[in-house]
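User: I'll paste a sequence; please echo it back and then give the predicted structure.

Assistant: Echoing your sequence first, then the prediction.
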Amino acid sequence: MLAMQFLSLKCNRTSQGAGADEIYMVVNGHRASAPEAPDFWSMDDGDSVGLNFFNSGFPPGVPETRFTITLMEEDTFEDDDLGTVSFTVNDFDWFDDFWNKIRELKFTGNDADYSLFYKFSDVL
């Protein structure tokens, strides 16, 4: 199965500059994290967190399956959307070191600036 391996998340700037953000990810409509991970990551400017977990993946031959990743900031009354990125594997060049290339997604909603680093992996 083809899957995204989430490697790390870096906070370049918190949302609205109001101290630490409580960050979580939603992948294809489901809150995503490693089983032993906290409900959210408390992050301030310059912080990075190692992730090292996979999404659910999809079988080979289905490259049109869409990945949709949303970065959220947990708040007391209403969570803030820090941005959404959506793509299919067909959006990438399979001959450009597809399996080993570390890629970056940027999330800049609500005055925040986060970088999510990932790569594609073949998992069984």
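The domain at 2-118 is CATH 2.60.40.150 (Immunoglobulin-like). The chain has one domain: 2-118.
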